[in-house]
Amino acid sequence: MKNKLTKIFLLSIIFTTSHINAQHTPSDSKKMEWFQDAKLGIFIHWGIYSVNGISESWSFFNNYINHENYMKQLNGFSASQYHPEDWVKLIKNSGAKYSVITTKHHDGVALWNSKAEKATTIPKNSLAQKDVLTPFVSELKKSGLKTGLYYSLPDWSHPYYDIMTRTEKRYDIKSDTERWQNYIKYYQTQLNELSSQYQPDLLWFDGDWEHSSAEWHAPKTLENLKKFNPSIIINSRLNNHGDYETPEQGIPVISPENEFWELCYTMNDSWGFQPFDAHYKTPNMIVRTLTDVISMGGNLLLDIGPKSDGSIPEEQIEILKNLGRWTSKHKEAVYGTRKGLPFENYKGKSSISKDGKKLFLYLEEAKDFAKIYGLHLLPISAKIIGDDTGKVNFKNDSNGNINLNFSNVKFDQDVTVVELSFNEKIKFSSVIKKEDLTLQKILEDQNTKNTTYKIAEQLYEGKNIFNNSGLTNDGLNMKIPTNLKTNQEILSWISKHAEALFETEKGLPNGHYAGMSALSKDRQTVYLFVEGVPTGPIALKGIKNGISRIRIVGEGSILNHSIYNKLYWSDRPGIIYIDIPKERLDKNMTVIAVLLDKPVELYREKVKAIENNL
């Protein structure tokens, strides 16, 4: 994939390339329907780089290994344990509806028997001595899965290509146009081969940042591809001539602007197989990433990296099997869904069915209730998907808000899904009305869990009812007025969590945390309100700061955290995962304090046609 080190060498080229949104016409909606419905695809990075377990192509481009030694891996690429039918079975059982395989990465090694001039191929040049692409595509098509082919526009090994490494070029294309035209013919020949031999449903380009649209002959390329398949879907890395956006690695904080988008994502920190990269996300994290993407209306393209013998690492198999367990249980809440409710209407992840008559809530924790605001309709039914014994009771108030109460629910180990059905299309309002809460009402409410939720909600919205109330910063010697109706359990919870309530301000904007939060007055501590019992570590996205310390408010326990997807060449922050021991959870509402190295700085990108992670 992309690497920041190319910036030094290619800065002038990059600055001449503008990022425009992918263009769409009404007819695109039909051809994009299967893609938008699919929700889950499996990416496969397989090539000679798996022999030594080093970075695909980039390891020689960045001069970590010389080109000659890199290409010697051809002699170790055996594919001796390659069983494409097992690959496809695993992919299909994961719940994926399509797969994208690297037919040729930037190193120029083609998995199929390419006849293009001076092509380097697995069948002719490797130990395997066989075409490994054709049997995989054949199995994909037999299975009913859609076929996606990754193709790198650059070929850093090819004698007709201008760029060799980040510090070396073969020639200047402006002074040797004939040689460049020979390269255009080479890559067009390969695309013609892929199109005619495999009839792909989708082409996934990469590497377009090295040249302009005109230099790549991108419009002509697209026109030619449509001759083979008028409904071909192209990702956005053909210099803005694609159909959908492709954010890479970092889960978007806010929904991309394009209706059609796909997050390409690794299970650990590597695309291809690397034996020493043990930094795998857990199966729980991957399922929750899928629901995060679904709630924003996108697809997840999850990567696997087979070994050079064609076997798939056990950690990756385990993740795919758990995905399959969850997707098969929750099919109606995955496929054909569309973007969910705004965060103002529901403080969590959700999606809406294609016909607009079903609402799916994704619960990442076991809890007693949930609240939805601003709905103009009352559901006709509510259930827990995959749990016939679970009960969901609901009632609405005069403001169009719905309270859901859960009982006897067998919560899923990863994400529990609540399905609400309506007689007509769901309508929701951005104008939300809630009851006016006073401190006295809060203190006299006898439903403690419900009250702590209301407190968190008020703080998240920047309404601090504890200002000038008699609350102290440590919860001691409080002068909060009480009476005989005061709920002493509420008072105790307030005292315990006073730090997070005293003079705190409006919480993080939507997208950074799938729950409610508040900020300290100096904006250097983020308070996270944690409902119920989380199924795994809670997640924070888009926090640019360093983390100084994380602890449980009111009882002092220091918590560990892990950061995933922080790439050294990208300014995109990694995802912060925080483990909370179940025995330390507050039965009403747990509060976590995240102390930052300075006042909070947020990353809120606007994903365009290309998510450029140079």
TrEMBL record:
The keyword Phosphoprotein does not apply. Gene3D superfamilies: Glycosidases. Residues 1-22 form the signal peptide. Pfam families: Alpha_L_fucos. Residues 22-332 form the Glycoside hydrolase family 29 N-terminal domain. The record marks C264 as: May be important for catalysis. GO terms for molecular function: alpha-L-fucosidase activity. One of its GO terms (biological process) is glycoside catabolic process. InterPro entries: FUC_metazoa-typ, GH, Glyco_hydro_29, Glyco_hydro_29_N. Its EC number is 3.2.1.51. Alpha-L-fucosidase is responsible for hydrolyzing the alpha-1,6-linked fucose joined to the reducing-end N-acetylglucosamine of the carbohydrate moieties of glycoproteins. This is alpha-L-fucosidase.
